């Protein structure tokens, strides 16, 4: 009698981007092994249901992840696929962050109306209305340009682009990775790169969780993980965890390997961008968590905790 094939159930939010990410992971799993079948389990989160209230005012961390994690913990699914930047840095009892595939391009993108003549950040007229609900983005932009008007914006990518194109904003900021994943890269006017803008912790990376006692799935997720991405995000997440700051904190990071070792740049700011704390440390790639903790310690010593 043939053994019934196990189905790996993937819990995911229902947004267009989340479904793309879940299907991407499903395809990676199918490429890795034929021993399992794969099925998606769509989950509605509070962050998806409430598309008007600013995210930082919606009960702290995990507004896009808590309910997806619960589905896995209650054995209604086997893995949860997250945008890693949305995933709180503290451990969740019963879950293992076992899969971290190669990250996509990690910078933020400025999107302008299609008939705009603006070509660079410095070309934006004074008083330009910029749509972004991210304190990290808002504070870094205000640190460079206090003459800009930073406005909240919610909704999926299509909704945000429609708000831009109907004149509600003069420009909006979106993650480069999400635009590219959905085939919308033609809407990118220019990228916001360091030192002007440091990305979020885990930006452009995916994080895949499973139950900590499901060794079969843990081993499968290890096979689709990317070693360098895991090193980078481990340093980034250790920095944020040591700061005791949430994923909506005004903190930006950039972790990259160079000839001298693993380099982690970090910035923390006051919400209005007037106070700014910068740290850059190079450490051992074999100890990324220690590097992240050291960077956080230096930010704290400078006084950044006051704004986190």
UniProtKB/TrEMBL annotation:
Paste the cofactor note.
Answer: Binds 1 dipyrromethane group covalently.
Cofactor(s) recorded for this entry are: dipyrromethane
Pathway the protein takes part in: Porphyrin-containing compound metabolism; protoporphyrin-IX biosynthesis; coproporphyrinogen-III from 5-aminolevulinate: step 2/4
Keywords per UniProt: Porphyrin biosynthesis, Transferase
Name the EC number(s): 2.5.1.61
List modified residues, type S-(dipyrrolylmethanemethyl)cysteine.
247
Recorded hits in SUPFAM superfamilies, A to Z, give: Periplasmic binding protein-like II (SSF53850), Porphobilinogen deaminase (hydroxymethylbilane synthase), C-terminal domain (SSF54782)
Q: Which residues form the Porphobilinogen deaminase N-terminal domain?
A: 8-218
Where would I find the Porphobilinogen deaminase C-terminal domain in this sequence? 231-300
**GO molecular function list:** hydroxymethylbilane synthase activity
Which reaction does this chain catalyze?
Answer: 4 porphobilinogen + H2O = hydroxymethylbilane + 4 NH4(+)
Supply the InterPro entries for this chain.
HemC, Porphobilin_deaminase_N, Porphobilinogen_deaminase_C, Porphobilinogen_deaminase_C_sf
A Gene Ontology biological process in which this protein takes part is: protoporphyrinogen IX biosynthetic process
The record's Gene Ontology cellular component field reads: cytoplasm
What role does this protein play?
Answer: Tetrapolymerization of the monopyrrole PBG into the hydroxymethylbilane pre-uroporphyrinogen in several discrete steps.
PANTHER family per the UniProt record, alphabetical? PORPHOBILINOGEN DEAMINASE (PTHR11557)
Q: According to its UniProt record, which protein family does this protein belong to?
A: Belongs to the HMBS family.
Assembly mode: Monomer.
Q: What else is known?
A: The porphobilinogen subunits are added to the dipyrromethane group.
Q: What is this protein called?
A: Porphobilinogen deaminase
Q: Which organism is it from?
A: Thalassoglobus polymorphus
């Amino acid at each position: 009698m043939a053994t019934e094939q196990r189905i790996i159930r993937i819990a995911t939010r229902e947004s267009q981007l989340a479904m793309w990410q879940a299907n991407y992971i499903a395809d990676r799993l199918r490429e890795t092994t034929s021993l399992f079948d794969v099925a998606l389990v769509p989950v509605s989160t509070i962050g998806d249901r409430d598309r008007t209230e600013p995210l930082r005012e919606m009960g702290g961390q995990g507004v896009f992840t808590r309910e997806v994690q619960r589905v896995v913990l209650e054995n209604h699914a086997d893995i949860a696929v997250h945008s890693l930047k949305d995933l709180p840095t503290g451990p969740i009892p019963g879950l293992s962050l076992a899969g971290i595939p190669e990250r996509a391009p990690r910078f933020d993108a400025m999107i302008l109306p299609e008939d705009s003549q603006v070509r660079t950040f410095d070309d934006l007229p004074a008083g330009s209305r910029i749509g972004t609900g991210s304190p990290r983005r808002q504070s870094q932009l205000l640190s460079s340009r206090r003459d800009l008007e930073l406005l909240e914006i919610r909704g999926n990518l299509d909704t945000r682009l429609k708000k831009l194109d109907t004149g509600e904003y003069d420009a909006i900021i979106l993650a480069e990775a999400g635009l590219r994943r959905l085939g919308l890269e033609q809407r990118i006017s220019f990228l916001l790169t360091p030192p002007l803008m440091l990305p979020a912790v885990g930006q452009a990376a995916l994080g895949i969780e499973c139950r900590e006692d499901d060794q079969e799935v843990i081993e499968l997720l290890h096979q689709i993980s990317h070693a360098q991405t895991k090193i980078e995000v481990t340093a980034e997440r250790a920095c944020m965890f040591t700061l005791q700051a949430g994923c909506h904190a005004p903190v930006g990071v950039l972790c990259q390997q160079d000839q001298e070792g693993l380099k982690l740049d970090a910035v923390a700011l006051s919400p209005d961008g007037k106070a700014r704390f910068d740290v850059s440390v190079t450490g051992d790639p074999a100890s990324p968590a220690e590097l992240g903790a050291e960077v956080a310690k230096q930010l704290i010593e400078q006084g950044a905790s006051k704004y986190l």
